[in-house]
Amino acid sequence: MQNSAWKKHKTSPLLLMAPKTPQQLMQVAGHAGDFRVGDYGTMLKKFCEREQQCYLRLMKDALRPFVPAYHGVVQQDEEDYNMMDNLLNNFSTPAVMDCKMGSRTYLEEELLVARERPQPRHDMYEKMVAVDPEVPTAQERAQQAVLKTRYMQWRETLSSTSTLGFRIEGFQKSSGECHTNFKRTKSRDQVTEAFDSFVESNTHIVWGYLRWLKQLRQVLETSDFFRAHEVVGSSLLFVHDWTGRTGVWMIDFAKTAALPSHITVDHRSPWVEGNREDGYLWGLDNLIDTLANIMEDVID
Ligand SMILES: Nc1ncnc2c1ncn2[C@@H]1O[C@H](COP(=O)(O)OP(=O)(O)OP(=O)(O)O)[C@@H](O)[C@H]1O
Ligand SMILES: O=P(O)(O)O[C@@H]1[C@H](O)[C@H](O)[C@@H](OP(=O)(O)O)[C@H](OP(=O)(O)O)[C@H]1O
């Protein structure tokens, strides 16, 4: 193996079986520039220790089949990356959708930081007024800046995050057609319309996704990892292709935090500051209901 990174970390047998052929990098959401194509069917995501710790725990959890296999830390151009399976492997010109799960998209600790050391952000002010120039307060207008938590809360209420506990971030069809303009996709009807466009009204695909989501819900209800973590800002990645193959995986654990032992969450109760609830299962219930309704409408 040529890559010096391999010397640093042992490879898993699965990885050794993966193709050497360079994989295509397809990113339908998230931070631009944080990803690279890795060797042997992997992708590299800019290193985040919190995410690394989650993946290490997830590799030993019941949730393992629902997350990309994790292969350790590698270096490229003096940058550290978490290396994981590219979930698009084994799909033929796939369609991909990213759904951000949960009713809250920032950590409680971010709220504390915002109070103690407020750092209003101009870039977020710009993103806010680009969608709705009427939203900033007089003070925010004067500063031409907003706090990140304020921006994130506004994004939640604008989209289905606050009403359904998940939101569509973006999708790419197998034709390459890409849609990322979902900031105002809020009602169940709007979400259904977007989803229908993603699957191109193919109920076989919807059926496949429903099966994945129901299995995932069952496993989440028994997972030790899920019981002990606040899962915030994590996404479900939906992948299908023309052969009818489907898959749904959990990705993005950069803001998934271990809970102190005295706190338990059910992932369905409403969040109030201090209870650490993330609304993940509430969102998954609503997502499953939304897809089930698509199937019912077809049958009726
Ligand atoms: N293991 C993977 N296999 C295939 N594609 C992936 C994988 N991980 C991430 N992606 C792609 O990259 C996108 C962004 O991933 P991710 O959510 O981890 O990024 P992020 O920058 O942490 O996002 P956020 O802005 O929510 O913090 C996903 O929507 C998906 O298209
Ligand atoms: O989708 P948008 O409207 O572009 O907003 C971004 C989105 O909410 C990301 O989840 C968030 O990153 P984190 O999840 O990592 O907090 C990012 O914060 P950032 O700019 O501080 O990275 C926001 O700018």
TrEMBL record:
Keyword Nuclease: no
Protein family membership: Belongs to the inositol phosphokinase (IPK) family.
Provenance organism: Sparus aurata (Gilthead sea bream)
Keyword field: ATP-binding, Kinase, Nucleotide-binding, Transferase
EC numbers, comma separated: 2.7.-.-
EC top class named in words: transferase
Source organism, top-level taxon: Eukaryota
Catalytic activity, reaction form: 1D-myo-inositol 1,4,5-trisphosphate + ATP = 1D-myo-inositol 1,3,4,5-tetrakisphosphate + ADP + H(+)
Pfam families assigned to the protein according to its UniProt record, in alphabetical order: IPK (PF03770)
Protein name (database record): Kinase
Stored PANTHER family: INOSITOL POLYPHOSPHATE KINASE, INOSITOL-TRISPHOSPHATE 3-KINASE C
GO term, biological process aspect, one: inositol phosphate biosynthetic process
Annotated GO CC locations: cytoplasm; nucleus
Entry annotated with the keyword NAD: no
Lineage: Eukaryota, Metazoa, Chordata, Craniata, Vertebrata
Recorded GO MF terms: ATP binding; inositol hexakisphosphate kinase activity; inositol-1,4,5-trisphosphate 3-kinase activity
